[in-house]
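Chapter review: from sequence to fold.
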Amino acid sequence: MLHRTAMTPKPAKCKHCRLRLERVGEKLHPDCIDPWLSANREKLRAKAVRAEKRQDRETREKQKGLPQLHKEAREAVHEYIRLRDAHLPCISCGAPPPDLSGLHAGRDAGHYRSVGSAPQLRYHPDNVHGQCVACNQWGSGKAVEYRAGLIARIGLARVEALECTNQPRKWTHDELRAIRDEYRAKVKELK
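The token string follows.
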């Protein structure tokens, strides 16, 4: 009966000259270290720069406060709403969709229940709809017309659910990052 013994692994090939190495675990011949380093110095420097930039991005992301995260989440949600409702008329006055070649192109993301009176609904997609600038900014949201348009668009039950939602809400850093990332992904999907 033959007993199998553990086989010792073969030494690898040198990364520079591609000849067999003498010892297991080596990656370069001693004579190949300097030529290999000089040949790969740019690659190593670029890799180090990428790693440093990634670390800086992660550090900056961790240092963001709630106001900055609220701003980023709001921008992502509003961009999504403007794209989602781009082909729909204004929820308040029924004005046709404007030419969408500009930044906002005459279209805002208007809230049914304002952020001041219901901050818990700030990012809720049923509470935010495409609204013309005249209705949103100059017409103070036109709440009565907004409600009528909202009932026609999402139904009375969902509107009443919005109106009954009064639980105060404190947003955490992780929740705001999740909202921002979710709506950024939805914007990419719509584009």
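Two observations follow directly from the output. The first strand starts at residue 107 and ends at 111. The mean pLDDT is 85.
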